[in-house]
Specification:
The complex is a heterotrimer of chains A (247), B (130) and C (113). By secondary structure, chain A is of the alpha+beta class. Chain A is built from nine helices and seven strands; from the N terminus they run E-E-H-E-E-E-E-E-H-H-H-H-H-H-H-H. The longest helix of chain A has 21 residues. The chains are: A alpha+beta (247), B mainly alpha (130), C mainly alpha (113).
């Protein structure tokens, strides 16, 4: 295995002593097949134990290690060092407040996620004895890709509208709302519309499309949001223009 | 341990230069300036047409100025960029499920491009451009 | 949270974006040809008045112009916000009004043909 000396520049912020963040550079002797997360772990174990960052699974499943790597939102466990030249600049996910070093404050996303009710709200409650809620493969396919979201928040860091309009519910939460709206077993679309069809819901999206470009799981939040815009537009015109449509 | 989260301010407009994808987005959005100006030019043309032959001839003559030609060329570039980006995004807004599978994006985008080209050729031919 | 009335302005934006994608480039080519001295047959005074004399042509042209201007106004509204002009209500009112005025002008002109 070949080794390579990699320069990593990390944005540091200590809330107890710093008034603002600053970059700190580390020279790390790395293995060829390492990812950025390996380099950070190596720094923490051998150079600087004070470096703080989140990670857990090291296999793009847990969604904890999202960070800006050379200005692009990435999972540090999926960012191979061999794809980078020169100094690698690592910063906390954009658009989120910094708690410490690479750790961000994610309360905003978590509360928005809860607001869109990302769980099945059955059309009709049936007793256990009535059996399963059945679904055809075609009905499953309508929402399956959206179930792959790992809540890593890379899409929020890529979305300029979220940066500009902090109230915007944002890509992942809206695409998870769509995941349930598009589920044939679900009857909660009207309930979710209180958030999804609000101005801070789909209507603050300007279809930049960055969310879908950076998603590590190849979910397409931009598609989910446009589909929700069209469905909610149809609802709106029905409610306001059709005779007897007003609620 | 005390909490003191640090908020990084979003630059007012310089965020556009943070990544090429934002510049592409802005180019797409600013295409509307040219499409808008061109549509107003059409409205003005219809106005001159309503005024009579002399006014309309003057309008056609004014089109021949170098400034007008430069505007047309720029507007054409931006208008085509708008068409291409619009059709490329159409499958995201209107995915088509046939049986179990969704039609691939390129089929929906491709169909729009084909219709666009045929429609344009049809209009050119109807207008006697060739 | 209340449901938004944005669909009212977004619907014509989406329709106008689609229309301009299909027809604006070829219209520009037509007047570009005229600008270069090769006036296409249909753009001749008598021919164009003949075409626009029909009520259906008047209606189609009015609809195309309204949707085009509206989609431009809506897009520009969002771009203004993106680029740091945050007086959204004012910007929106001015741009949508301009789109409507442009369309009204087109309808008035067409009525005189």
């Amino acid at each position: 295995m070949s080794e390579r000396l990699v320069e990593v520049e990390v944005l540091r912020y200590n809330p107890e002593t710093d008034s603002e963040p600053h970059f700190q550079r580390y020279s790390v002797s790395c293995e060829e097949e390492w990812v950025v997360l390996d380099a950070l772990n190596h720094v923490k174990e051998t150079i600087d134990p004070t470096l703080s960052y989140r990670w857990s699974c090291h296999m793009a499943v847990c969604g904890s290690c999202g960070m800006m790597i050379n200005g692009e939102p990435k999972l540090a466990c999926k960012a191979f060092l061999r794809n980078y030249e020169g100094v690698i600049r690592v910063e906390p996910l954009a658009h989120f407040p910094i708690e410490r070093d690479l750790v961000t404050v994610i309360d905003d996303f978590v509360s928005k996620l809860a607001r869109v009710k990302p769980y099945l709200i059955p059309k009709e409650d049936k007793p256990l004895s009535a059996g399963e809620y059945r679904q055809t493969p075609a009905q499953l396919k309508k929402y399956k890709q959206y179930t792959l979201c790992i809540n890593c928040m890379l899409c929020y860091s890529a979305c300029p509208e979220y940066g500009l309009i902090p109230k915007y519910i944002g890509p992942a939460a809206l695409s998870l709302a769509h995941r349930y709206n598009a589920d044939s077993r679900d009857g909660g679309r009207e309930e979710r519309a209180q958030e999804v069809a609000a101005t801070e819901g789909v209507w603050d999206c300007s279809f930049v499309g960055a969310c879908s470009e950076v998603c590590p799981e190849h979910v397409d939040p931009a598609s989910a949001i446009q589909q929700e815009k069209i469905a909610n537009m149809v609802d709106w015109y029905k409610e306001h223009l059709m005779p007897g449509g007003a609620k | 341990m005390s909490r003191k989260p640090y908020v990084r301010e979003m630059p007012r407009f310089a965020w556009v230069f943070r990544h090429p994808r934002y510049l592409r987005y802005m180019t797409r959005e600013l295409s509307c300036l040219f499409i808008g100006a061109y549509t107003l030019l059409l409205v003005a043309g219809i106005g001159r047409l309503a005024e009579g032959p002399a006014a309309y001839e003057a309008f056609l003559e004014a089109l021949k100025s170098p400034l007008s030609i430069a505007f047309h060329v720029l507007a054409l570039g931006f208008a085509i960029y708008h068409s291409i980006t619009w059709f490329n995004l159409t499958p995201k807004a209107l995915p088509v499920q046939i049986g179990e599978e969704f039609a691939p994006d390129w089929v929906i985008t491709g169909a729009h491009h084909v219709i666009w080209v045929l429609l344009s050729l049809g209009i050119l031919s109807l207008a006697g451009a060739f | 949270m209340a449901k938004s009335n944005k669909p009212l302005v977004w619907g014509p934006f989406a329709a106008g974006g689609t229309i301009t994608a299909f027809v604006t480039p070829v219209l520009i080519v037509l007047t570009l040809l005229a600008a270069l001295g090769y006036v296409p047959e249909m753009l001749g005074y008598e021919n164009l008045r003949g075409v626009l004399a029909h009520w259906f042509a008047k209606l189609s042209v009015s609809v195309i112009i309204f949707l085009s201007l509206w989609s431009v106004a809506h897009r520009l509204r969002i771009t203004c916000y993106d680029l740091g002009v945050r007086a959204d209500a004012l910007v929106a009112a001015a741009l949508y009004l301009a789109a409507v005025l442009g369309s009204v002008a087109a309808v008035v002109y067409l009525a005189r043909i």
